[in-house]
Amino acid sequence: MSDPILSIKDLRKTYSNGVQALKGVSFDVKKGEFLVIIGLSGSGKSTLLRCINRLHDPTSGQITFNNSGVKTEIASIQHKNDIRGLRKNVGMIFQHFNLIPRTTVLVNVLMGKLSSVSTLRSILGMFSKADKDDAIKYLNLVGIKEKAHIRADQLSGGQQQRVAIARALTQNPKILLADEPVASLDPATCHVVMDYLKKVNQELGITIICNLHFLSLVRQYATRVIALKDGMLVYEGDPKNIDEAWFEKIYGAGAKEVHIN
Amino acid sequence: MSQKKFELPMRRLVLDGFSFSFLVMVMLFAIFNPTEEQQLNLQFNFNVFIGSFLVGMVISYLLNASGVKTFGEHLFQPDYKKAVENRPMLKTFWGWHFIGFMLLLIIVGVFKTKFSIVELLNEDGFGGAKRLFAGIAEPNWQILPRAVLNMVETIFMAFMATILAIPFAFVFSFASARNIMTGKVSFAIYLALRTFFNVTRSVEAIIWAIIFSVWVGIGPFAGMLALMVHSIASLAKQYSEMVETVSDGPIEGVQSCGATKLQTIWFAIVPQVVLPYISFTVYRWDINVRMATVIGLVGGGGIGTMLVQYQGQAMWQEVGTIIFVIAVVVWIMDQASAYIREALK
Ligand SMILES: Nc1ncnc2c1ncn2[C@@H]1O[C@H](COP(=O)(O)OP(=O)(O)OP(=O)(O)O)[C@@H](O)[C@H]1O
Ligand SMILES: [Mg+2]
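Predict the joint structure of the above. Result:
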């Protein structure tokens, strides 16, 4: 097997209010896998993802990013421009979609090009033809090309999340981070969105790291699972091997699995 | 249970202390009936004031400590205590404290404004007022064209002041928003700008008009500059308050795409604030038209300057015409700006 695309070592994050969200987490992410992170609310899942694209700054530890042989030490990037460069390679989608209100779907998707267009050109709205074609291409991939000129806040939740996926894909990322991408969607829509993520993973070969709450989804989509508890890694392995005992260890004694479908 | 840090209820003590020292001062004035020279002895009076102020604070502290609730305590107590209040106001100490304080303020107010029913009903003065009203009620329509012309000048004074204030206020609004100015240097800039705008705003537009009419000469340009300065400070404050309430989602969204600070502001924040901005700006224009009228009185040009000329010569019929024109325009502006703001919601 080739080198891992991400290698995380002893990652720690203490927020300014003293909360230790991550207490030394280490794991590798293989290229092309669909890694799912599970764990109770507050176990540090979002913090972990946000350290990877530096929306948060890790307190200590290493996050090594292997971009086809070129290695970057994410945790120690200092300069703003280098963080921008990193984010070009790491896309992210969010629970609440985080699209821009009062703005068309197309412009939202073009945001994916912000890191490669100069500030002045982008503010004047001067995106190139190629950039626009790219945006349309990815809107097409998530099946909502015809919505390009509609305001993003007019779409349904599922459609908004697909716009968010298209936006992230327009960055042409190597890794896609997904922070509970379906937590605010109904069960049916939830599968639509997860299926698009699977498609992105399998057809475009983009590595996905995804926080999820429902184990039924984990079993269906994940190629590998890690579990966090109180900021520490407590499980790493195949989704099919999460049995009752592991479930209790991750979610606490007496917890029951809920099924959606 | 955690040990709560001992804190003096400062707001309560200041209010109670002030009400007590006020009482003491009024009583001293009533008893000694000081001469004007004694009234102007600021140093001495200030010392008496501060002395009784401190005594009042101590009294307030002791009263509240022994379970008697003062007006200051009633006003500034935390919400959870307010919830259990059930006695009628007239059966409480704080109620009488409040009523006594208000009565004292009103009595002093009557003296200070030389309140006089006699003057109000004085034959001569009343006759003058009657002539004035008669004049105003019978406007001289001959000067209407000039009044309209001057009103147009006033409206454009207000319009230009608003338009020219927009770009400055727009840029400054981000530089004086707490959620954008993170980091040490930015925070210093934020504080400096906030202070600067607060000071600028607390100087009334009419004062700015006096300053500018000395600087660039009496006329609409001075009035426009005065309104502009005031508008920049007011708009920047209102705008920046909007910026501080935007939701973080879109900001994170574009930042995760690698946006620079400017791109983040432009793409994630501006779309969230643009409607309120327009709404504030329309309202500001409305306010500026009214202010421009007043500013004219001190030489800011437009209809106000015209008004003050006729008023000086006691030409009440002409004044009536001008008041009519102002009233109509202010009413129209008020309606129009309300409709526009409604449509922008
Ligand atoms: N910006 C922040 N400042 C301070 N503390 C934070 C911040 N963000 C998260 N935390 C704290 O860090 C811990 C981990 O939070 P995190 O959001 O990573 O958990 P999570 O696993 O994503 O939970 P959820 O499933 O509810 O999203 C929590 O105790 C949380 O209160
Ligand atoms: Mg989370």
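The longest strand of chain A covers residues 20-29.
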